[in-house]
Amino acid sequence: MSCASLLFGQEFSPEEIARTKAARGLLTMEVEVGTACNFRCKYCYVGDGNSVGNGNSAELSLEEIRDVIGQAQALGARKIILLGGEPMIYGFTPELCEWIRGRGLGVELFTNGTNMTAEMAARLFKLGVHVVLKWHTSDHQIQDWLAGVPGAAAIMSDAYRHLRAAGYPSTEAKMALSTVICRQNVAELPSLWKWMRTEGIEPYFEMITPQGRARNSAHDLSPSVEEVRQLFETIRTIDRDQFGRTWEAQPPLVGNACLRHSFSCLVAASGDVMPCVGVSLPVGNVRERRLADILADSEVIADLRDHEHTIQGACGACDKAATCYGCRGAAFQLTGNYLGSDPLCWRNQAEHVDCAQLPIDAARLVPHQAPARMVAALEAVGERTATVSAVIADDNPHCRAGRLAEAAHVELMAQAAAALHGYRSATRPEATPQRGMLVGARNLEIHADIRVGDRLTVHLHKQARLGTFGVIDAEVRRGETVVSKAELKTWHEG
After folding, report:
1. pLDDT 10s digits, 40-81
2. What's the average model confidence in pLDDT over 363-370?
3. Domain CATH number, residue 374
4. What is the mean pLDDT of residues 152-166?
5. Nearest to 478 by CA among 458, 446, 456, 459
6. CB neighbourhood size of 200 (10 A)
7. What is the pTM of this model?
8. Which residues span the domain enclosing 487?
9. What backbone phi and psi angles, to 5 degrees, belong to 99?
């Protein structure tokens, strides 16, 4: 799965979402109960190595999970979404559901159906837990193939039968079936959608995010973008004509829009906090800092919550940009840029469409011109971090006798900082260059010469920010060798 919420945020009003964004709060939170799983799903966002018996001893304990859920509730969260791995492998999951419900919070449980006995289904129904069960096809052979283990379809079918017998779905205990869109089931999905609607079950159809095991299986799994577009439109017509439901067709969810980056986050089993399972970019760890502080300080979270003004390339120029940001997970996994355009959206398939893919040519990001410009490209962006490549040309005005002047080490670092600043503005469709300057530098250390022809990387880490001023640690490397480093003080236009 790449997204997680039975109603995808539409149970919250626009006013509630706006207040939550402004307060850096939460309305929902996803929690990875653990990474162990008894299936080997070909579309899984988790890589190989996580299976029953391979659980990570460094995973959050039950008490740690309870603690971070309490922190989320203090930030306004009203619903907790439990993910895996496979949550029902962990014996404490039913107890955790009961504890969460006892705090007055909603629970959504994503499961492949393992250990969903009649007694367990009845217990979850009584608690009012919303259950999202994997269900990709009515063909058991294909179901087993997708799950990577024989007998998977039988596990899902038994779980479905027990959940229905327990009373699912009801007003208090909703039920959804989670379905990935793939080549093996795409022809069947319209009829599967109609069946779910008729049964009162929420269809949860989503595009596959190309990460983890899914990246390795993309050739076998992924339908064409045009096939996906046609599927969305076919189901949209079915919903309108047969069920009286109207919606816009847009990725990554059929019949819904992903709103989660306005009010949610993921806490992984390691304690890492990430925007979602697709944007696998840690912004902090709950074992090291309070959740409120992580969310308040995260530039990545802030960028995604301000998506109307930060999404880049074709998505930023789209006429739906105010209400849609595509799949941030697909953008991050395919372009390396969490603010880049979604390459899997059918609106971005025209030739030469700009998806703001990393690396981004530094000439687009900084005002410096060749030959004085030393930075070549912005290679990677993380939480208050960036990596910038650089090449020292033979006509560089800062070079004497083939060697870069020592003072120009700081200039190189400053150009890298300018590239990072330009990243948040120069790749927007309506962008205008913003001015900035190096205010000062201290603690300069030079460990080796930089020579003409050297290929370097500059590694940046933002220490602090106060309004339009910032403090950045910069380190220049040749391969793995540190050539020089310093602390920069910068200013940029507000």
Report:
1. 999 998 876 543 334 455 999 999 999 999 999 999 999 999
2. 92
3. 3.10.129.10
4. 99
5. 456
6. 11
7. 0.92
8. 360-492
9. -65, -45
